[in-house]
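Give me the fold.
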Amino acid sequence: MDSLGPALRALRQASGRTVASVAADAGLSVPYIANLENGRGNPTTGALARLADALGTSLRVSFGEPDVVAPALPASLVRLRRTERFRRAVALMEADPGEVVAALAAVGRVVEAGEPDWWRVLDAMVLISLSPA
């Protein structure tokens, strides 16, 4: 539980979101989320699932794995993630938005990518997912 607050804050900041915008999307109060990020509170799995959904990721519970803090995403990737076009592409692929962003971020760690590059890679991912053979 000690790592929940920092992990939640890192995920929120990596997605370029404010506490207020996440709270609104999750149907939770700003003080509730702020308390969680500061290591206070005892959230239910339902609240955590709503937070994960608001942040465009999935809730995973694991035991015995080392803490991993997600690196900050490039601003151009954060902007891409917020678009309707991105949501439509993810829906076409029937994929998890967080996993798609993670895949794009992995590309960004190898090559310097800007917004047009993200769209090209995302379009290629859609084409591959629709025609895997």
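Residues 115-130 form the longest helix (16 residues).
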